[in-house]
Amino acid sequence: MAGRLIVISNRIPLEGPGSGGLVVALHEALTDRGGIWIGAQETDADTASEKFTRHEAPGYEKLTFELTAKDQEEYYLGFSNSVLWPLCHRRTDLIDFESRYADGYERVNRRLAHMLAEILEPEDRVWVHDYHFFPLACFLRELGVKNRVGYFLHIPFPNGSDLPALPHHETFIDWISSYDLIGLQTQRDVAVCLEFFRGHPKAELLLDGSAKYGSRTTQVRSFPIGIDVDVMLQAADARRADATLRLGDGERLIIGVDRLDYSKGLVNRLKAMESWLQHREPDEPRATLLQIAPPSREKVLAYREIRDEMELLTGKINGEYSEIDWTPVRYIHKPVERELLAALYRRADVGLVTSLADGMNLVAKEYVASQDPEDPGVLVLSNFAGAAEQMPDALIVNPYDVDEVGEAISQALRMPLDERKARYRELMRGVQEQDIRWWTRAYLDALARCPVNLATETEG
Ligand code: ADP
């Protein structure tokens, strides 16, 4: 297909191809097709440049736009992470809004739209990633841009009943209907998004599952994101966790790996562990929860609060249940390099994912991909993680019911090898079939096929 692929994401790896499934997949898609990757870069200057900065990259171009300290505070920490993140993760109680955040979000998106409109050629396709850029297509349309513009939202689509908590929420429909294709993680997200269109007096749903608003038609489809399975397998094969991790004789391992974020259900997870400890039968083996939770967005108050809560609860549980030779919860507040992470996944008898809301949750897929096929561990997975839709062979739990999760831990620890293998085979098949390369292909094929909207005006 003619024209370049133009990818927009807030984060862009500037040193080499970068690591992490998404970054590598975008790098490969751009290397195969040629194009431009555009991302943000902080500047010390008081005013952001109106021009992109070009960076060396083989096979395609990398361009960055500047974010001043004020942009960082208002657009990134403010509107993106203190308003949109809690809104989409069903925590409207945590929304921390100031008018300057909305101004900063609009300012950065309008500036980027102007810069982008300057360099777009008629056949280019634009692929915008995530909640930092909801209004980008709308601002591009206002500038007369007619190119195909697709969007992928990596986090849950906000519930229609929560949306009025978004300041200036009336414009939200203009933002999202300006895209030609909206990609979401799950069928459930698609249903929520279409329901939002259905509920709007000026929008209508079409039979093919797309939504019409004014003169524009937007396709809404799910593309569950996957991982790079081979990289995970190689990492898990490369190293054994036993050299680093000391466990007692017969002691079992439960692993949790998450950014320290309130959406991940970490407090519930500790409480579930407490419930398991409380109900543990005398003949049940000891198990330790290794919770790896690196710091995240610490400038935002809600993130500092969850850190305090975790420290308190870990201390309380260990105070009550530790023995001289057993500490049931090991909480590590730092990142772990990928090979060790994979080795720990493989060593763990149980992978525990208890998100209260989560776009996909890649940790669930990484845990499965790292297992030894002859002696696989068991995935306990929250019904509220997007991954649950594709992974029914995990032990699916309601993370709000900590006793249910405690029982699932017990069931996982007792599960016979045959059942573990059967569940693993099904889970691994899905993880392999719909991996990260499948995801980029599926999205970009759909974007290439979706009808182009020739009208550019947005409805008021
Ligand atoms: P989110 O994108 O909300 O952080 P995901 O589970 O989808 O959640 O992705 C998290 C990614 O970050 C995974 O690839 C995971 O391996 C990685 N990660 C999470 N915690 C750590 C950690 N402590 N050390 C290294 N990588 C981590």
Automatic annotation (TrEMBL):
Any one of the GO BP annotations: trehalose biosynthetic process
InterPro entries, sorted: Glyco_trans_20 (IPR001830)
GO molecular function ontology, one term from the record: alpha,alpha-trehalose-phosphate synthase (UDP-forming) activity
Pfam families: Glyco_transf_20
Gene3D superfamilies: Glycogen Phosphorylase B
Family note: Belongs to the glycosyltransferase 20 family.
PANTHER family per record: BCDNA.GH08860, TREHALOSE-6-PHOSPHATE SYNTHASE
UniProt-recorded name of the protein: Trehalose 6-phosphate synthase
Originating organism: Tranquillimonas alkanivorans
Phylogenetic classification of the source organism: Bacteria, Pseudomonadati, Pseudomonadota, Alphaproteobacteria, Rhodobacterales
